[in-house]
Structure formats: C-alpha cells, structure tokens
Write a structure and sequence with these properties.
The protein has helices at residues 21-29, 51-56, 66-73, 87-104, 127-151, 157-177, 182-190, 196-219, 224-233, 258-280, 307-312, 357-369, 375-385, 408-414, 446-469, 478-484, and strands spanning 76-80, 83-86, 120-122, 125-126, 240-249, 293-300, 322-327, 330-340, 347-354, 397-401, 424-429, 432-441, 473-475. The chain has 490 residues and is an alpha+beta fold. The strands form 4 sheets. A 4-stranded antiparallel beta sheet has the order 6-5-8-7. It has a 4-stranded antiparallel beta sheet with strand order 10-9-12-11, with helices on both faces. The protein has a 3-stranded antiparallel beta sheet with strand order 2-1-13. A hairpin with a 2-residue loop joins β11 and β12. α6 (157-177) crosses α7. The two termini are 37 Å apart.
Length: 490
C-alpha cells in the first residue's frame, strides 16, 4: 500500500493512456469529451498480460492465412489530414483499448470471454462500437500531434527509436512465455491482420506525438506577475486549511428504510454536537471523539467538495470556530485553526516499502555499502524490491510532495528542515517499513507549483484541442472496417 493516505487518482488501465474506464460511460454521454491532456507514452503494457490466456485458447492465426490477412490489413480505412491509414492502424488503437478492458473491464460490464459485438455498452451501442469509435478518436488525436511535430521540424528520433525497441522487446518477452513468435503474438493482441511493420509504425507515431506534446508543455513559461494574477483570481484554490474533525457515520446498509436512515442521521448529529459541547468545556476534539473517527488535517485543500470544507474555506472563518456539518452518511464536528497560502517548498523523495524491519535493513545495507549510492541505484532497487504498487514502477519516486497528503512519519522525515540531497534512512509507518532517499527540495513554493500547473494545463489544452479540431477525418466504409477488424472473441 502506498504511503499516501489520499484516495489515489484513477490510474490509467494501460500506460499508453488510451482509455479511462471509470469515466468511459460518463464521457460517452458528455458528447465524447476529449481527454486532451493525455500524453501518449507509446509503451503499451496492459496488453501483455492477456497474451498467455489468448495463446492457451488457441487463437493464433494459421500460417496459410498470412498473405490474405496482410492484404486486408493494409487496406485504407481512414483518411486524416489528407493521409490514408490502414485497417491495421485502426486495429492498433482498437486492440489497445480492447486489451485494457479485457484485463480490467469486468467491473464495468465487459466480459472478454464473449464477443464485444454481442455485449451492450449503452442502449443501441455494443462494446465493439465503443471500442471502434474510441480507437478512431484517439487515432485522430495522435495523428494531429504527430503531423504538427513533423511540420515544426521536431526531432523525436531518439524517443521513437526507444519506443520501438522497448515495445518489440516486450512483445518478444511475452511471446516467449507462450512459445509463440513475434508475429503470432501481435495478431493475438491486435487482431489477425496486424503485422510487425504496422505495429512499429503506430508505436513510432505515438512516440513522436508524446515527445512533441511534452516538449510543448515544457516550453510554457510564466512570469511572477502571471502567477500572481492567476492566484488573485481564486486564492482559495491555492490555499489550505488546518482543521480537526470527528466523523460519525450511520453504518446503515443501502436497503435501510427511510425511517431507519432518519433516526441514524439524528443520532450521528447528536454525537457530533456532543463533541462541540465537550470542546466548549475544555476537552480536546480527540478526547471527545468517542466512537467517532478523529482526524487532523493540517493542510486540507479544496480538491474535494463538502459542507465541511465549504464552511472551512469561508472568508470570515476565524481560529477556534466550530460547526456540525452534514455528510453523505452522517455528521461531522469540525474545529477550524487557520488558513495557509502554502508557501512552503515541496520536496521529492524515493522510497522502498517492505513489510518487515529486517528486509528494510538488508536493502538499506545493500544500498549504502555497495556501489556509488546514487539516486539511479536507489531507483533500481525500488523498482525490484518495493511493494508499493503506486511508485515501484517509477523507482519509488514521490515528486513535488505536498504536506498533509502522506502518513505522518513519512511526511516528518521528508520535510525535516535539516534534510540534504542523498540522505537515506529507514522509517516505520502504518503501511510497513520505508527505506527513504531524499532527492531534493523544489525552488518554487507549492502555491507557485499549483498555479503554474493550472496555467500550463489550460494553455496546453487549448493548443492541443486546436490541433485536433483543425484536422479532417474521413472514415471509409464502416461496415468494411467492422467486418475486417477482428479481435479475439469478436
């Protein structure tokens, strides 16, 4: 489990960012709202997990079909910005989305053991329809940025070469697990018409788009006056509050009657009011919690909407103010301490989370007694030894860490004023033992970081949308594509 005590942001179900299934249905009903802030990584990892199952079920293309399928796969299916793209170009995006849901989509109503053509996504639309429409949308976005990169003379050769190498290496690795060839694996993952040439072409296109997007985002700069003006427009968005609160929930099941719910809510409210009464008599909130849940948030931001935070962020809020606020399944007693502009400097650390002290000591000794004790060496250890699934793949990296988002021992060590780059230690938290590595402190304050991120996001999104909206896309005979785009159980 991660050191963060915030609910994790929705993680993309594959690193290429093709689809966020938790928002899929909602986004569909919102006129296909474009995920314009998505950065292509061009390294597809979710699909590999499905391969062993596919090969075990015998869905490998027979050799005598190769010539015909290669011909069909090369047929033009879509024209974007004057360039023709084949069935296989569409299949690359379709397959990425399909495999994402095949690995993770059961909770969203998709069953990969059945044909996507026979499962309803929404009324009048099958999952196959959704996959195909999404594939075309994402394909247009990638082409738009890649064409813009080419027009600007952007050199993404290094990123494209790296993406090609890493993707093919990944394909070969997982193909070997199933005793398959590279060609067999690609057809199993992206449909029977996929070829290595088409796969590499799409990987390189996405890598170019990703590199150019990142380059553009990195090029956006803002003056101190720009940051201050943005802050002045909505100061609460870049502040935090220090509050204590005690929550009382009803604990009722969803099938409780209205009378039961009403009674339980009244009881929760009475308990919350009792906390305020005890506080007025000199007892602390924590001492008065009873069977409620006590929490102290020294840096609660406005990222979550609630009656409690609306009250806490009111302009006239003063130290010592208290209230009882309703929440979805109960009531909460709240004590306000202060408001902060968050002018502290975020820090960046790496950590390796393990279950027991001896394992942590062994890792700590291995790092400090061998090699050059560099950040890269620590990151390599984190990638192979950390049990924190949220950070292990990034070498245990926790960047631009803000206060109030992490368990106290983790935060106390990281924000210790005496901390120096390269410092290491072992700390214990409720999640286990953390082998820590301090990377450094940001030059900008957390408030500046937030404001700059918002400005960058807005400007980047406007640029991105303009690129995509300016392109024409003409889809060929839809029935032809539907017929020739064949995935697994389809």
């Amino acid at each position: 489990m991660s050191a963060s005590r915030e609910k994790k942001a929705r993680q993309e179900l594959n690193e290429s960012g093709y689809v966020d299934p938790r928002k899929a249905r909602e986004a569909e009903e919102k006129a296909k709202e474009r995920r314009s802030t998505r950065i292509y990584t061009a390294v597809i990892v979710a699909f590999v997990l499905l391969g062993v199952v596919l090969f075990a079920s015998g869905r490998i293309q027979a050799g005598n079909e190769a010539k015909e399928t290669a011909r069909i796969g090369a047929e033009s299916a879509v024209t974007i910005d004057g360039e023709d793209f084949s069935v296989n170009d569409v299949a690359y995006y379709y397959g990425s989305i399909y495999n994402t849901f095949a690995n993770n989509g059961s909770s969203f109503g998709f069953d990969s053991s059945k044909s996507a053509r026979e499962q309803q996504y929404t009324e009048g639309k099958t999952w196959h329809d959704y996959f195909l429409e999404s594939a075309l949308d994402y394909m247009k976005e990638s082409v738009a940025v890649a064409h813009a990169a080419e027009a600007a003379g952007f050199d993404g050769a290094e990123q494209m070469d790296s993406a090609e190498q890493s993707n093919l290496s990944m394909v070969d690795l997982y193909a070997s697990y199933s005793g398959a060839t590279r060609a067999q694996y690609l057809t199993a993952m992206f449909g029977k018409y996929m070829t290595e040439e088409a796969f590499v072409r799409c990987v390189r296109r996405d890598a170019l788009a990703s590199a150019y997007q990142q380059s553009y985002s990195d090029s956006l700069t803002y003056s101190a006056a720009d940051l201050q003006a943005a802050y002045n427009e909505d100061p609460d968005a870049y502040c935090s509050v220090d509050i204590e609160y005690v929550s009382f929930t009803t604990g009722l099941s969803s099938d409780a009657t209205d009378a039961e719910k009403s009674a339980a809510m009244e009881e929760a409210k009475a308990k919350a009011e009792a906390v305020l009464a005890a506080y007025a008599e000199g007892r602390s909130f924590e001492e008065s919690a009873g069977d409620g849940t006590y929490t102290h948030l020294a840096h609660a931001d406005r990222s979550v909407t609630s009656d409690m935070l609306t009250w806490a962020f009111a302009a006239d809020r003063a130290e010592g103010d208290t209230t009882v606020a309703e929440q979805s399944s109960g009531y909460v007693a709240v004590l306000f301490h202060s408001r902060s502009r968050d002018d502290y400097h975020p820090v960046t650390v790496r950590h390796i989370l393990v279950a027991d002290e001896q394992t942590a000591a062994d890792i700590y000794s291995q790092f400090n007694n061998t090699g050059d004790k560099t950040e890269n060496e620590f990151a390599t250890l984190a990638a192979t030894k950390s049990t924190d699934s949220g950070t292990a793949s990034n070498g245990g990296l926790v960047s631009n860490m803000r206060k109030g988002a992490y368990v106290q021992p983790f935060e106390d060590w990281s924000f210790d004023p005496s901390r120096q780059s390269g410092d290491t230690d072992i700390i214990k938290s409720e999640y286990g033992y953390h082998v820590m590595y301090f990377v450094g402190q940001s030059d900008e304050t957390y408030r500046e970081y937030l404001v700059k991120n918002d400005l960058t996001s807005e400007d980047y999104t406007n640029w991105y949308n303009a690129l995509v909206d300016a392109l024409d896309m003409t889809v060929g005979d839809t029935s032809y594509i539907r017929t020739n785009l064949v995935m697994k159980a389809n």
